[in-house]
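Bit of a strange request maybe. I'm writing a small parser for structure token strings and I need a real example to test against, not something I typed by hand. Could someone generate the tokens for this chain?
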Amino acid sequence: MQSTSEVSERWRLLKEGLDRIVMGQERVKEQLLVCLLAGGHALLEGVPGTGKTLLALALARLIGCRFRRIQFTPDLMPADLLGTSIYNQKTQDFEFHPGPIFADLLLADEVNRTPPRTQAALLEAMQERAATLDGERREISPVFTVLATQNPVEFEGTYPLPEAQRDRFLLKIVIDYPQAAEEATMLSAYAAGRRLHDDAVRELTPLLTPEELLHSRRIAAEQMRVEEHILGYILGIVTATRGHEAIHIGAGPRASLALLESSRALALLRGRDFVTPDDVKEMAAPVLDHRLILTPEAEMEGTNLPDLLRQIFEKVEVPR
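Reply from user aminoacidic:
Good idea to test on real output. This should exercise your parser:
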């Protein structure tokens, strides 16, 4: 079995591959790799044109996996996602034609534009890595990962994900506009005739196989040291959200597990075999952002998550 340092080095090369395609956005790329290494799903939120699709394309290429993309629309049905059985007149039997859900990496574009029935079909696959069709359970890839995007600006004609479904995503990754220097580099690349969506992505070579990805996840789960005081710190942060005056519904036990898993993955990506309080603090925002429901008063006052987390961090003692 590989050591944590060997796994960390392999993922460093993976990060360098993403750097060749996506200019800047260091936090976003690191959080995406954390989510993949931790075995979770990510909710990507950002205005159009900030590189969400490009990130998914590059990542799929680098891990040599089966990639599918589906545009979620108001008329999308569960069968369009899961697949359907079609009668074959030659064999006089029904043949199953799998849908895009049967992939390793699925980009669910604008997931909040499809009705709840289709969203629920996606939820089962995310949770179980399996789908039930015609009364039969069909297994999906063991490395199945969903990157679901949503536009934070447009709300007309959308179906916001219920709290229970948002909780299934390990992280919410917010993608902001790039820095001026980063956007200038991108413009220069395109001006020189280098198209990142086409030529640059095709030039990427796989650095990780699905089997190696599973192995890396086992290393993160089994070989990373998490001391008792770190577990207590994670528990303290999550439970503090449940009694905060500005929070109507706090984070549940799944958030505690998500914070643990993502903190281990972040530490491994940074070349360590142990988790620190800083790892936990750094992953708290993407883990808790989509899980907390503010009170109406807090929303009216414009309370934002960074300020809220700072209040929580001040109340929870940092272990030494």
